[in-house]
Amino acid sequence: MSAPTDDPVQAPTTELFHAALDMAQAAKAGNVSGWLASRYSCGRFDDVAFLMSQMLGVLIENCAIARGVHPADAWNELREQGVDEFG
What does R_g of the chain's alpha carbons equal in angstroms? Predict the structure, then answer.
């Protein structure tokens, strides 16, 4: 397993970004084998996980702002409502 870089999002590689997008697309479609193939295609598991976490955080906060909700409140809502209410 590789160690994460200092900040993979500050200088994301095309490989990491594409792996993250492919994993998200496969997961949303319920395609487990596609998700696994995308995950292992990169080989930088920790970096991809960190990049995906940052991407998710940006999406959550941007969605909150678009709804007129403070981002901190959106994080609390998600924690309280759980995964069934996400999205």
Answer: 14
